[in-house]
Amino acid sequence: MRRYDAAAMRPADLRKEIKRCGESVLEIVNCCGERYLGCGMRHTSLHITGTPGNALGAFLDGGTIIVDGNAQDATGDTMNSGVIAINGSAGDAAGYAMRGGKLYIHGNAGYRAGVNMKAYGGVSPTLIIGGRSGSFLGEYLAGGTIIVLGIGCPEHSQLTGFFCGNGMYNGRIYLRTTEIPTGFSPHLLQRRISREEKESDLRPVLTEFAAMFGENVNELLSGDFILIEPDPENRYKEMYAAI
Amino acid sequence: MRREGEIRIPSGCAISGIFARDGSAVNGRTIRTSIALMHERSNGLGGGFAGYGIYPQYKDYYAIHVFYDDLLAREECERYLERHFDIINLSKIPTRPSPMITDAPLIWRYFVTPLPHKLQDEHLDEEEYIARTVIKLNRTMKGCYVFSCGKNMGVFKAVGYPEDVADFYRLDEYEGYAWTAHGRYPTNTPGWWGGSHPFALLDLSVVHNGEISSYDANRRAVEMYGYSCNLLTDTEVITYILDYLTRKVRLTWEEAASVIAAPFWNTIALKGGDEGKRLAYLRHMFSEFLITGPFSILVGFNGGMMALNDRLKLRSLVAAEKGSKVYFASEESAIRIIEPEPERIWSPKGGECVIVQLDEGVTA
């Protein structure tokens, strides 16, 4: 495994090294604000300690990025496939316009997590947030799955801010709580899911998430989950301007 | 060169702040390190700093910082200053020549106090006298621009990257209990020395990342109260609005934040109760000072600092604490580079101000 000290290199050189090394395993230590790490990466496995900069793993097209620390804004922007696991919190717009792959955040996510995620054909992205998320979770969601677990939060607490699922027209948002988001939109439906649904829809993805961060999957599956989906009878239209 | 308002450049910025609640001295070098980490957020067309508690030897005098185009402008401005103020000290602001900072104007600093008979004749309090004099000077006098006029604080700004601006102004020779910094990526205007951030009036200074879509409505409103927006840049108007709301209307900082980043009516309705009433009152009373569009700002003032995001949080802002120090920055890494192990690190919600002040009993 190759090891790079981010504090001792120019960020551009660091990005070049990641690109050059192909299918190997790389470790980057002392990260502090270097942008675009793992951007467009296909095969490499990247282990980062510190605070990587904005647009970590943007356009990721395979491979794995694991961060011991917090990520900043726009993590996994438009990623296509692969896995990003943040053992910490993420800034705003995590998983922005994701088209595939998995983005796992152990801690909290900022505003606009999963904004405009989409699915096509058999490819569907998954965003899991261990803690809470900020406002505009899943705004304009067009496909894929978002799960917010509220690890460490009191039972029955709000796991997201205002405008959850604003403009959402496809995809699913699961919240591990019984509290319906504040100001819940009339264009969305919400219901508590059954035990069978938890087993079939959530266990497989939460097993991987739990393994990644040393959580217990059975504990994560305990408690009630609500599922938020768009109301097919009352879709969002003309949100900002009459056409 | 074409100035603000004569050209539009379509396109980010970086902001950073440090506040020592115990009033302990922070060297200007520290804020330079923080803002320099976000080099890529600016494009070299503006950088600046505001330091508080930096002039303890002259803390009872207003520190007037001025850019002059030429010697003539200086002579004319100095005559004007002498008519209005008792100047107890004047000098060039010390700079270190740098190949990175070019086309520097003449940069002078005056420590002044209003002439007592002038103050009496005008029936104004001291601060209003200073504000009016500075606003008039900036509006009418060609070739000079007052960019800082507070007590025991000072703004240092230029065209260039912020780290180069810090070196140019020798900020490592200043110490203060609070600092803000800005790296500029001008989006609408070409960037000149006066247009760099922070923008300041009296001891209030603003650094801003974002773009205000309500600029013209806000400008028209604030100009009704005697301000004059000469620079056609959005941050200037924020400075005047906050000066008006806090110094003239005497709103608290929390109230001023609820005015400029007022929640949506449906959010106010959801809150209900006394809080809902308070927010509705402020929104009705000061509707013309609602600032829309993306912004994250740091507001410095004597004894405190406020951080605020627009209500939709369209710009990033991270806050952290360690001991008696509080940090703010556009990016978490810009805090960690100067404080690797903060005790608490968080992102304030949109429209939710964070206000820090000197501990009780601490004087700047």
Description:
The complex is a heterodimer of chains A (243) and B (364). With 243 residues, chain A is α/β, with parallel strands linked by helices. Helices cover 14% and strands 27% of the residues of chain A. Chain A has a single domain (2-230), classed as Pectate Lyase C-like. Chain A contains three helices and eleven strands; from the N terminus they run E-H-E-E-E-E-E-E-E-E-E-H-H-E. Chain A has an eleven-stranded mixed β-sheet, with helices on one face. Chain B is an alpha+beta fold. Chain B has one domain (14-357): Glutamine Phosphoribosylpyrophosphate, subunit 1, domain 1 (4-Layer Sandwich), CATH 3.60.20.10. The mean pLDDT of chain B is 93. Chains A and B meet through loops of A and helix 9 and helix 11 of B.
How would you summarize this macromolecular structure in one to three sentences?
Chain A is an alpha/beta fold and 243 residues long. Chain A is 14% helix and 27% strand. An 11-stranded mixed β-sheet of chain A has the order 1-2-3-4-5-6-7-8-9-11-10, covered by helices on one side.
Please specify the SSE layout and strand pairing:
The complex is a heterodimer of chains A (243) and B (364).
Chain A lengths: L1 E4 L5 H10 L4 E8 L12 E7 L9 E8 L12 E7 L14 E4 L20 E4 L12 E7 L21 E6 L12 E5 L2 H19 L3 H5 L4 E5 L13
Parallel strand pairs in A: 1-2, 2-3, 3-4, 4-5, 5-6, 6-7, 7-8, 8-9
Antiparallel strand pairs in A: 9-11, 10-11
Chain B lengths: L13 E7 L5 E2 H10 L9 E6 L9 E7 L2 H14 E8 L13 E9 L1 H7 L3 H15 L3 E5 L4 E6 L3 H7 L6 E2 L1 E6 L15 E3 L2 E7 L4 H9 L10 H15 L4 H8 L4 H7 L1 H13 L9 E7 L2 E6 L8 E5 L2 E5 L2 H5 L7 E3 L7 E4 L7
Helix pairs in contact in B: 6-7, 9-10
